[in-house]
Amino acid sequence: MTEAEKLATLSQMSPTQTALVIGGGVSGMQASLDLADQGFNVVLVEKTPSIGGAMAMLDKTFPTLDCSACILTPKLSEVARHPNIELLTYSEVTGISGQAGNFKVKVLRKARKVLEDKCSGCGDCVEHCPIEIPNEFDQGLGFRRAVYVGFPQNTPLVYTIDDENCIKCEMCVKACEREAIDLAMKDEEVEIPVGAIVVATGFELFDVSKYPRLGYGEYKNVINALEYERLINAAGPTAGHLLRMSDGKIPKSIGFVQCVGARDVTNQVPYCARVCCMYGIKNAVMAKELQPDNVKNVTVYYADIRAYGKGFEEFYNMAQTRFGIEFIRGRVGEVAENPKTRNIEIRVENTETGEYLQHEHELVVLCPGILPPKELRVIASELGVDVDSDGYLFVEHPASNPVDTKVPGVFVCGCAEGPKDIPDSVAAGSAAAMRASITLAKGGEV
Length: 446
Ligand SMILES: Cc1cc2nc3c(=O)[nH]c(=O)nc-3n(C[C@H](O)[C@H](O)[C@H](O)COP(=O)(O)OP(=O)(O)OC[C@H]3O[C@@H](n4cnc5c(N)ncnc54)[C@H](O)[C@@H]3O)c2cc1C
What we know:
By secondary structure, the protein is an alpha/beta fold. It is built from 10 helices and 24 strands.
């Protein structure tokens, strides 16, 4: 089907048979699959060129250390192949009107300059592109071309041309035997009738440079946790080799700093981000797993350890007993670089002993909290849904209706409602799908 035929079909959807899901992370994917498996049509709108969300960037998942890609990849292809799911990646919702059973949703299809029905994902275009720029998917630690897919499992496996950096040399056009590249392609807008809406827009990472005393952006050997996830990932920029940025050496000593941009009223993040304790411990364990002979010392600096989930406390205990990770209770005051070694000195008060400590590490990983995406407020106001004091979507009855917004026919799942780990995001995705399917089955009646 050509793009024009696809947009024409979408504009004629039957609203009581169709749901819109905004955001293609793991929670939005789950909501889409559960709706589609019940026989409803799903239009899944994702703003980036691929679905997968943050989970696609992770290496392992706590507390089982399962490979993130191994869990996610089958779901990616299930979504892509499902006959009831229409995937609109590199697209954004620009307007919503109407009510349960009959919403009208305007979706902007950004021009990816590559025809989805013709591109086979062969990559011939990439080999000829002369432009090299930092790859956002690798948190800027690796490089991509101006014609790109962010990662090998990009779904759909269709290339995108980054118009800002493309120099229009047309080398990719000449290289593409399938004539899939159209540099003249323009953005298009389509209005789609849907009966129910699920918001699954996920989170943004807190910007750790808001704490200048922690040295991020100033010292090369201070990185954030998502950068670390990409560094230790076999498909990442160092092919999974844990190296420090200043000299490419394996760090013998690593410090993890918890609660950077969480439980901090001065930075407008008074709430606990729920996932950082566990992903910090996971990444500390991974350092020892990956380099048992080289990484001698791993220390986690924490405010409290919140190991609330199934298997979490056991995982925390195992980090100490089996992997010898040291845990120091105390908020890190400041860090400084040793100009000769580029090592990082951490100054912290151990609040259990009252001791003032100065520890040197070859690499320091800051573990940020999470924030609602900036545009969530815009989507919320389009929908007429409130946001809570932290900026996440407000649900009317968190205990009895945890995925229902106050607007009939509009549901929320995953981190769009508040910080959650993967299992809770998936469960919320299924719950939102069930609630949306009831709206559709009743023809929008509430
Ligand atoms: C460093 C780190 C490590 C972690 N490790 C683990 C772990 O080991 N185990 C675990 O259980 N959890 C872990 N987590 C948490 C996990 O990443 C989240 O639970 C999960 O990603 C939440 O899924 P989601 O679908 O709600 O959101 P996301 O993964 O954020 O997906 C949201 C999607 O919506 C898209 N989107 C946003 N706005 C719009 C819009 N306006 N229009 C269209 N699309 C939009 C985004 O591009 C994205 O694709 C970790 C988190 C971090 C930061």
